[in-house]
Amino acid sequence: MKRKIVRIDEEKCNGCGLCVTACHEGAIQMINGKAKLVNEDYCDGLGACLPVCPTGAIEIIEVERNTNTIHHEHETHVESNSQQLLPCGCPGSMEQTIQRTSVEHRQDLEQQEHPHVESQLTNWPIQFKLINPYAKFLQDSHLLIAADCVAYAYANLHQEFIKGRKTIIGCPKLDELDLYYEKFLEILKNNTIKSITVLKMEVPCCNGIAMMVKQAMLEAKTIVPYSEITISIDGKIIQD
């Protein structure tokens, strides 16, 4: 299976660095005064860097999906500065699958007078802007697409909704829905998704996240079991 990535023409690159700032995935770095795609795995292929390039040095190409090639001449640089190559250049954005406590141990905790409530989150990152559409944890997953504010309004979010699902969160009012749409389209096209649950607040702006998901499903021709839940500001389920 093929996937899209960017290719940078070094001859055309003038070293302005605008593409580095525009890349949400941290896939592009300035090396020796030129922009370089330092790791193809981090490139989401959406081309946010294209419109900011003043010289037209960037184009979208297709490569085999399992490519994991780092430019040979920069291997030493990459190994000694590996944290710079994480999405958005931030070590906290590294793709992770989180192992959770066994069922037996959780039952023991529940029998205690003041049991510890364990997180059910099993993937990282979770922010839409940071998610790589080709992240391994997305394959064969049940997805939870949640508005940011839900976590603060609904107390039992982890046990009722995050448990057993891979979580992606975002704010349809403060972020760019077009970016969400393009990224979610890539997720649907390049992964086998088993189900999608959308969790949103009752405020009107939150409807955008549900509309985005449904439109992407139609364009990708990927119809899977879908549920949409609305949470009230006072923390109740008002529509399921």
From TrEMBL:
Transmembrane segments: none annotated. It comes from the Bacteria. Residues 4-33, 34-63 form the 4Fe-4S ferredoxin-type domain. Signal peptide: none annotated. This is 4Fe-4S ferredoxin iron-sulfur binding domain protein. InterPro entries: 4Fe4S_Fe-S-bd, Corrinoid_activation_enz. PROSITE patterns: 4FE4S_FER_2.
